[in-house]
């Protein structure tokens, strides 16, 4: 289970945003400090999300192509 929590208005310049995330039962960002290990874990999470999005995009493209082929076949009937 992953939990993301940001404090107050992130949009305002100069605001400090607290990010707390949990991967499984492990807290990634301890209250009070942010380590290189924490950053690496979050970067890994971002990379995993990016990979998942790319896979979803490819699946959407595949389905769209399949639908176009079906429509083409139906148009010839």
TrEMBL record:
Coiled-coil parts of chain: 46-73
Domain of life: Eukaryota
Keywords tagged on the record: Coiled coil
Protein name per the record: Uncharacterized protein
Lineage: Eukaryota, Metazoa, Chordata, Craniata, Vertebrata
């Amino acid at each position: 289970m992953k939990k993301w929590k940001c404090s107050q208005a992130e949009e305002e310049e100069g605001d400090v945003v607290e990010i707390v995330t949990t991967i499984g039962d492990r807290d990634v960002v301890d209250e009070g400090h942010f380590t290189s290990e924490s950053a690496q874990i979050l970067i890994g999470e971002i990379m995993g999300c990016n990979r998942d999005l790319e896979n979803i995009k490819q699946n959407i493209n595949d389905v769209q192509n399949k639908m176009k082929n079906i429509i083409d076949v139906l148009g010839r009937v």
